[in-house]
Design brief:
Low-confidence stretches: 302-306
Number of domains: 2
CATH architecture of the largest domain: 3-Layer(bab) Sandwich
Distance between the termini: 82 Å
CATH superfamily of the largest domain: minor pseudopilin epsh domain
CATH topology of the largest domain: minor pseudopilin epsh fold
Number of helices: 1
Largest sheet: 7 strands, antiparallel
Radius of gyration: 30 Å
Structural class: alpha+beta
Length: 306
């Protein structure tokens, strides 16, 4: 009688002593490495994430302007101390036209509009199609643009009309005309949330901060409205260049730093640079070894860009 034997797979041999020692060594080495560099990585994380967040959203704004063929950018939002801890997306709507406007002889101070709704039927002035800080031009293309200094208001006339006041620097011929336009300034993008930097990280505005921190801070020319409101806008044209006062310095430099560190010696800070002519966005370290903290921004090979 033939006896049948079943074949059983051989079990794997256990770990050798050398293998166990190697594993223990690797675990010990990684634990020691974490103890040594872990705190530094944690310390660097907030300012690094803030820099990536800011640089990435500037690139998004630049691409959005190219895609929509319409100016698009970001607005830095200052807190009570003058420093920036958040920003939001902005876009510039096209010119406003329609209906007719009647002006007084020799003045554009209070033009009166009929056949068009300057408020858009809304009750909040900051949402009107026409707002303080926009520019009124009449006649179209040849008149001197005049700054709108008050929000549009409805007049008790028949038919109903609307008006606003301007700084009226030039004289015009009285009468009604359709030859006008309102050049509108940047607006926050509807539906987009405010973007916040990590805790203890700011875009240092230097002397623009209240009180000043002593840090030289960012280099960016603000927009100032008729009401004295200051906006720090970085607005990209569809071609990529920076529009408005923000682009007048040649380079926009945003000083991103961790407020828990001494800015004069800390490595937890970066300079985000926007080339106003090309729209190139890049990052550079702060030169804390010399009196010129911005020296690395003068070397285009010092860091990468978008």
């Amino acid at each position: 009688m033939n006896r049948r034997y079943e074949q059983h797979p051989r079990g794997r041999a256990g770990f050798t002593l050398i293998e166990l020692l190697v594993v223990i060594f690797l675990i010990s080495f990684l634990a020691a490495l974490t103890i040594v560099i872990g705190p530094a990585l944690i310390l660097d994380e907030p300012y690094s994430r803030a820099s990536q967040l800011l640089q990435g959203n500037l690139f998004i704004a630049k691409q959005q302007a190219l895609r929509d063929r319409n100016p698009y950018g970001i607005r830095l939002l200052q807190d009570a101390d003058g420093q920036v801890r958040s920003f939001l997306f902005i876009q510039q709507p096209g010119d406003f036209t329609g209906g007719s406007v009647t002006v007084q002889a020799g003045s554009l101070n209070q033009p009166t509009f009929t056949g068009v709704d300057l408020t858009g039927g809304l009750s909040v002035a900051t949402l009107y199609p026409v707002q303080v800080g926009d520019y009124f031009q009449c006649p179209l293309n040849t008149g001197t643009p005049t700054l709108i200094t008050t929000a549009p208001a409805v007049n008790n006339t028949q038919p109903p009309s609307q008006s606003f006041t301007t700084n009226s620097p030039n004289s015009v011929t009285a009468g009604a005309t359709t030859s006008y336009r309102i050049m509108r300034g940047p607006r926050p993008v509807a539906g987009e949330d405010t973007i916040y930097l990590p805790d203890n990280v700011i875009i240092d505005m230097g002397a623009a901060g209240t009180p000043p921190t002593g840090c030289p801070g960012s280099i960016l020319t603000p927009n100032v409205t008729a009401a004295g409101t200051v906006y720090y806008d970085i607005l990209f044209a569809p071609a990529g260049s920076v529009l408005g006062p923000g682009g007048t310095t040649g380079k926009i430099i945003l000083w991103v730093r961790d407020t828990t560190q001494n800015w004069q010696t800390a490595t937890q800070q970066l300079l985000i640079v926007v080339n106003a002519r090309t729209g190139l966005v890049a990052y550079y370290p702060v030169d804390t070894s010399s009196g010129n903290y911005y020296s690395f921004t003068q070397n285009p090979a010092a860091a990468g860009g978008l």
